[in-house]
Write a structure and sequence with these properties.
This protein is an alpha+beta fold. The chain contains 2 helices and 5 strands, in the order αβββαββ. A 5-stranded mixed β-sheet has the order 1-2-3-4-5.
Length: 118
């Protein structure tokens, strides 16, 4: 497995721990439907939260969340719609980004709630 895959898995694990520490209930991790994937699906009070996790070793090329382009947002929205349809949910949905950068070997986590609108 490539180093970036290991880094991504570590980032997702850190994000899950961070979110559960904030009281989120994790419903799914790495949920797939055909070619769609959602890193984390969680519940935060009345919200279904679709979470994209971006992890980088440095911020040399900018903050990780800038990698969530409009194209990626459209994919996440489509994936969320598929999940909601499959699970027969009627719930308000929010899209969050968890951005993780390692500085001096330590993860710095930024949680951006309501990062974009569908």
């Amino acid at each position: 497995m490539a180093d970036h895959n290991d880094l991504g898995k570590l980032g997702e694990e850190l994000a899950v721990n961070y979110l559960t520490g904030k009281g989120y209930k994790i419903l799914e991790r790495n949920w797939h439907n055909i070619h769609k994937e959602i890193d984390i699906i969680a519940r935060d009070g009345k919200f279904l939260v679709i979470v994209e996790v971006k992890t980088r070793q440095t911020d040399e090329y900018g903050e990780p969340d800038i990698a969530v382009t409009r194209k990626k947002q459209r994919m996440l929205i489509a994936a969320a719609n598929s999940y909601i349809f499959q699970k027969h949910l009627e719930i308000e949905t929010r899209f969050d980004i968890v951005s993780i950068i390692f500085r001096d070997g330590e993860p710095v986590i930024e949680h951006i709630e309501d990062a974009f609108l569908p």
